[in-house]
Amino acid sequence: MATLLLFPIFLLHITTAAATALRPCYYRDTCPEAETIVRQVMKRALIREPRSVASVMRFQFHDCFVNGCDGSMLLDDTPTMLGEKLSLSNINSLRSYEVVDEIKESLEKACPGVVSCADVIIMASRDAVALTGGPDWQVKLGRLDSLTASQEDADNIMPSPRANASYLIELFQKFNLSIKDLVALSGSHSIGKGRCFSIMFRLYNQSGTGKPDPAIDPGFGKKLNKLCPLDVDQNVTGNLDATPYVFDNQYFKDLVAGRGFLNSDQSLHTFQETRGFVTLYSEDQDVFFRDFVEGMIKLGDLQSGFPGEIRRNCRVVNSHPSIVVRVPKVDDGW
Ligand code: HEM
Ligand SMILES: *[C@@H]1O[C@H](CO)[C@@H](O)[C@H](O)[C@H]1NC(C)=O
Ligand SMILES: *[C@@H]1O[C@H](CO)[C@@H](O)[C@H](O)[C@H]1NC(C)=O
Ligand SMILES: *[C@@H]1O[C@H](CO)[C@@H](O)[C@H](O)[C@H]1NC(C)=O
Ligand SMILES: *[C@@H]1O[C@H](CO)[C@@H](O)[C@H](O)[C@H]1NC(C)=O
């Protein structure tokens, strides 16, 4: 009987995400300081640990590709739900969740229960780019937070660092993102770091050949071999481009020179379908910035279509506050 009574009450507090039209200045009346608060916390994070803003910037990709931009990747596992944090692409890799917690705490103090975690990711990603020398732009807001997350969906959707450009073109196409969007958005790797784990195969056994990826510039290859010898602790990290704290077009210059870090990066130059954009962006930073902003807006427009809420704590849905960490399945071949 109690559940029958609770169900309609629960329904009153959720809305369908699909019904929400995203728009700029969504919180103008309900939380006018929202964007200022997010930027302030991101500025502090940048000073405390320069890489953390890149780590937060990456959240937009990992959130929006898995069932839309709904904050699902921020949910901790529960006894009944394996979330996305321990999925193949995220385990031992996504980091700086505490920066989002800090943003959310500040927002809850200023305007409790108003700003979604999904919108926090979108604002914070934009701020990470703007604060490291990249473009600044107006973001659309008004997203809701998911009531669930799926490790399985994240495993199935998120690309491996081994992916090549033709695989990525098809993947992005599923989200209505063009070849131009793929290359421009990959320019996110202008900031941040990656682990040796993500490049061991391309240094020592590309496509099972027992040889390195021939696209690696020999001088750069020597540096990578030194950073990541065969017996290395695979959590050791290297820079994704030569200027990992500055959002610029150095990433594309590096790809042209065979100095891309990930296989997915270098492959954008190897494949003829994507090479034109790599060359263009390496020569014209303004065009890169323009196309990047366009791509980020399209990425941010991906919606879940499932019911949602405004979470009070980004790690837990409002009605089920239990946290349990589970051991994920490990796939060495990923
Ligand atoms: C195109 C397909 C993509 C692939 C295959 C890919 C893969 C990766 C991998 C493997 C890493 C390093 C992870 C590690 O070694 O722990 C990484 C880092 C990163 N990715 Fe991507 N990524 C892609 C697209 C994107 C997009 C679209 C964005 C943002 C919109 C993005 C933002 C980042 C950032 C900022 C980092 C550095 C994070 C840090 O330093 O903590 N990536 N990516
Ligand atoms: C690209 O990757 C796909 C999927 O992994 C693979 O089937 C294909 O053979 C690769 N293409 C090239 C040219 O390496
Ligand atoms: C891509 O665009 C088509 C046609 O406009 C639309 O039906 C589909 O839902 C879109 N897919 C995504 C993932 O947004
Ligand atoms: C390289 O990869 C292939 C195929 O994945 C595998 O059979 C082989 O044992 C690997 N070689 C080394 C040295 O790891
Ligand atoms: C990386 O570090 C984590 C803990 O921080 C550990 O569980 C994991 O096994 C390490 N991974 C590799 C590939 O060494």
Short description:
The chain has 334 residues and is mainly alpha-helical.
Give structural notes.
The chain has about 325 residues and is mainly alpha-helical. The protein folds into 2 domains: about 5-160 and about 305-325, Orthogonal Bundle (Peroxidase, domain 1); about 165-295, Peroxidase, domain 2. Helices cover about 45% and strands about 5% of the residues. It is built from 15 helices and 5 strands. It has helices at about 1-10, 35-50, 50-55, 60-65, 95-110, 115-130, 150-155, 165-175, 180-185, 200-205, 220-225, 250-255, 265-270, 270-285, 285-300, and strands at about 15, 145, 195, 235-240, 305-310. The strands form 2 sheets. The chain has a 3-stranded antiparallel beta sheet, with no helix packed on it. Helix 2 (about 35-50) crosses helix 6 and helix 9 (about 180-185) crosses helix 14 (about 270-285). The longest helix is centred in the last third of the chain and has 16 residues, at about 285-300. The radius of gyration is 20 Å and the shape is globular. Mean pLDDT is about 90; it is low at about 1-10. It binds protoporphyrin IX containing FE and 2-acetamido-2-deoxy-beta-D-glucopyranose (NAG) (4 copies). The site of one 2-acetamido-2-deoxy-beta-D-glucopyranose has 5 residues, from loops.
